[in-house]
Write a structure and sequence with these properties.
elongated
Amino acid sequence: MGRRNFASTVQRPLYAQQRLERQESARKFCEWCDSCIASMPKQSHQRLLRVRYCDGPETDTPDGDAMNILDISAATYTRRKKNALLAAAWYFGVTPRKSSEQ
């Protein structure tokens, strides 16, 4: 006989429930981030942020990969990324601080 799928009345283990809740929270956060990026007026900012942070595979050189996908120089990429992140901070309602890299 085949397996039947019945809804279990057994309580899920706490860790499984917490994982599902974290996944749902992360999904909602990603949707919110995507809507913030979509609301940015400059398409070049939208494209750069999506390529760098959303669409690309996780690699050891995400900035280099983004430059290759966008087909732009390192200087142009660095300038556009800085401007895009500042614009995103404004849309996200974040006050950026000067980092040690700047």
